[in-house]
Design a protein that fits this description.
Order of helices and strands: HEHEHEEEEEHEEHEHHEHHHHHHHHHHHH
Strand content: 5-15%
CATH superfamily of one domain: Beta Polymerase, domain 2
Bound molecules: adenosine-5'-triphosphate, magnesium ion
Number of strands: 11
Structural class: alpha+beta
Radius of gyration: 28 Å
Length: 409
Amino acid sequence: MLDILLHAGFSAFFVGGAVRDTLLGKPIHDIDIATSARPEQVLELFPRSIPTGLQHGTVTVVHKHNSYEVTTFRTESSYSDYRHPGQIAFVDELEQDLQRRDFTINAMAIDRHWKLYDPYGGQSDLHNRILATVGSSSQRFQEDALRMLRALRFAAAYRLRIDEQCQQAIWQHGELLQHIAMERVAYELGRLLQADELHPNLHMLKESRLLHFTKEKLLLANGSLRQLPSIASRAESTCWALLFLHFGLSSGQAAHDMRRLRLSKRLQGDAGTLLKLCEWLQQAVEETDAAAQTNNRPGLADELKQQWLQLLLQYPLELLELWLEQFQPFSTQVKLLQQLHESLPVKSVKQLAVQGKQLLDWSNKPAGPWLKALLEQLFIAVASGKLGNNKQEIERFVKAQNEDDAINE
Ligand code: ATP
Ligand code: MG
């Protein structure tokens, strides 16, 4: 890939995340290339290329089934809105390009012969586990305030200590975050949440006070951080749900913040459901505990089971199963529910041996709300073991009911 640019007489290097991850021996996900070729020239050299960000000099190139972000060497200046450079200029030298990059660990390049260019000591910072900006942190954050959140994200992802100067600058310029679009805040926050260790990273986020300064106010800012059990691998929706749980927000408050962060509808829905389930469990456990204390009734587990079956009718099965799996470490109750769930003969209406069409044939009635109600009734009966999940038994049950209805009418 680099060769094509080199043969055409341009210089070209791997830069950014790919270099960092190569040095760490981590898998690479996307590859950035910096080159002296101008965007038009890149477009001309590679037939399968898309001008993704021409004004910044970026072209996406598909080459031998890989996709590359190819960006022309550039400098940036006269930042005016605390985020975007007012002016960019294409230049011919790699050194000038590396200078505009945010952190030392992100300002390294590797050439065609695997020679490393590292003018700001990124490799030694990686080795010593330090995150430092290229040049004055204070100045770099005033140019682009998003870099403060990026600092937390990279420190979290690579377990780096943010150096003193950088930390001071975050304290000093935190309020500039008000100039950053909420979507960008959400993206960096999302990346921070996906890093291995959640609690120390949230602690760092809280300490930085950055959450106080977002463009639109977040309830998270006033949350107090709680230490909760940790979960190793986490789905994206779980990450968000955990953020709000750790900060002690209710599902309603979380919904408010997720809207402000412009999370996708799907994430808002999924994370919101996971949180509601946590609240449901809390309440159900408290109620059954209280009932157990007052009248020492057996069969409480059965009550919980009946409630769980109602949830199975109400929420998508995948989400309930995700919650069971991911929130198990949180409480023995979730573990018990998981066991109960696994033992169910059917887990959703779809798994019934009989579907709506068949019920319509048996009933001679036009379709209507009764159909859904009947399916749900059948589900509860089959799932709680009162009815076998086979056509004959279900047919007998339904017909007996039809006769009852006829008598009652
Ligand atoms: P990853 O791909 O894992 O998110 P990355 O380092 O490749 O990490 P990108 O956001 O893809 O991060 O950016 C690519 C490179 O562009 C960075 O490594 C950095 O050199 C530079 N860069 C990105 N955003 C900024 C910024 N706001 N200020 C300065 N340099 C930046
Ligand atoms: Mg990248």
